[in-house]
Amino acid sequence: MQPKLVPLAECPCARTVETVGEWWSILILRDALQGFSRFDEFQRSLGIAPNILARRLKHLTESGLFERRLYQERPQRYEYVLTAKGRDFFPVIAAMVAFGNRHLAPEGAALVLAECETARPVEPVMVDAASLRPITPDTVMVVAGPQASPGMRQRLATIATMRSAVPSQNE
């Protein structure tokens, strides 16, 4: 993990990367969102070394993405169940699948997301919950939240100045 840098420490992107940005963590969460919950299931699916898997599961549990539950007494065995926070990571995985299919699969998609009831393929897009309009780099900007530090406000002011000085890609 990288050291916390102010104002990056208060940036939601930096905090997310610190929590789940490691390669194995994202793949573990992907598998958990598909129904895996046991150590041996993750290990078999990912081909990951047991010590690395144990470390990643411990970190994800301490970060509140998993809850560790005993499912067998002798020997003691635990499963890793996604919390609400862990399930909230699903849109990130869906976006990664869409991005990978669009930009990194020249031979075609190896997997797609589909509706459970009909198996109709779906194309994930990010929309504003209130207006249902797509969220794109051209339609939104980053602004200071109520808890932004002076350093974060300065950083955002610098970004706003840079953005106003560069012509839009649509011009």
Automatic annotation (TrEMBL):
MF annotations from Gene Ontology: DNA binding
Entry keyword set: DNA-binding, Transcription, Transcription regulation
Domain of life: Bacteria
Pfam families named in the record: HxlR
InterPro entries xrefs: HTH_HxlR, WH-like_DNA-bd_sf, WH_DNA-bd_sf
Domain HTH hxlR-type positions: 11-108
PANTHER family: TRANSCRIPTIONAL REGULATOR, MARR FAMILY, TRANSCRIPTIONAL REGULATORY PROTEIN
Protein name as it appears in the record: HxlR family transcriptional regulator
Organism: Bosea psychrotolerans
